[in-house]
Design brief:
With 238 residues, the chain is an alpha/beta fold. It has 2 domains: 2-117, Rossmann fold, CATH 3.40.50; 130-236, 3-Layer(aba) Sandwich (Rossmann fold). Helices cover 52% and strands 12% of the residues. It is built from 13 helices and 8 strands. Strand 7 (203-206), helix 12 (209-221) and strand 8 form a beta-alpha-beta unit. Helix 5 packs antiparallel against helix 6 and helix 11 (182-198) crosses helix 12 (209-221). The longest helix is centred in the last third of the chain and has 17 residues, at 182-198. The two termini are 24 Å apart. The relative contact order is 0.15.
């Protein structure tokens, strides 16, 4: 299968190893990976802020470049939800409505793609650490992704998954929300970090780098030794 990889802005700019890990995972499984370099942003920040016109201007080239893709894989529940759930809303009633609907059917968040599309649950990874998992809001609430990342983690050799009490609670990032309401965002993040710390885990794992960036910043400020790591990096670890 030819897999078209959509790399979110955060990963492209700040966490390139996540994208590299995804490529290695998919190629190891025997798939051909394409990654269009000219696609920049999915338009989610503008969309979430109510600027739908600006969001469409960013989404249009994405629609055009991905319309012939066989499968589009995104290592992010947040950006995955934008393409899969919100693009059909963004272009409803417009000439691009069918293109948005067709693209939606081909978009997969990474763990969902591996488990439910490919039927792969064991990637031969080895990560000898105690971890806890954070469910990003969009992946959980918009895409319904809960089981697939945990299924993959259960088959990582040496890994111990300990669920935190606040696994499904928002980390407080929320994109522009963190910029508009920093005190609320920080307070929400503190709740998440405290819940993670109670597990005794060494790492917080998630399928959203934006959430992990927010949490790592808080953990570092608090002087905590706990680290954050993307699911793809764990699955690619040997």
């Amino acid at each position: 299968m030819t897999v078209t990889l959509f790399i979110p802005c955060f990963i492209d700019s700040l966490y390139p190893n996540v994208g590299i890990s995804v490529v290695k995972i998919l190629e190891r499984l025997g798939h051909r990976v394409e990654c269009p370099e000219t696609i920049a942003c999915c338009g989610q920040p503008a969309f979430n802020s109510g600027y739908w016109g600006e969001a469409r201007s960013l989404a249009l080239p994405v629609l055009q470049q991905l319309k012939t893709a066989e499968a589009v894989v995104i290592p992010s529940g947040s950006c995955g939800a934008m393409l899969k759930v919100f693009y059909p809303q963004l272009f409803a009633g417009l000439p691009q409505a069918n293109e948005a609907k067709n693209l939606s059917a081909k978009v997969w968040e990474l763990s969902d793609f591996l488990v439910n599309k490919l039927g792969v649950t064991d990637l031969g990874a080895w990560f000898p650490h105690k971890v806890t998992f954070h469910d990003g809001c969009h992946g959980l609430r918009e895409l319904g992704i809960k089981k697939s990342p945990r299924t993959l983690l259960a088959n990582v050799k040496g890994l111990q998954l300990v669920e935190m009490a606040e696994a499904e609670t928002c980390c407080g990032f929320g994109g522009t929300f963190a910029a508009k309401f920093p005190m609320i965002s920080t307070a929400m993040g503190d709740v998440k970090c405290a819940a993670a710390a109670e597990t005794g885990a060494e790492y917080i794992v998630s399928n959203d780098s934006s959430c992990l960036m927010h949490l790592q910043g808080l953990l570092s400020r608090q002087g905590k030794s706990m680290k954050t790591i993307h699911l793809a990096e764990v699955l690619n670890h040997r």
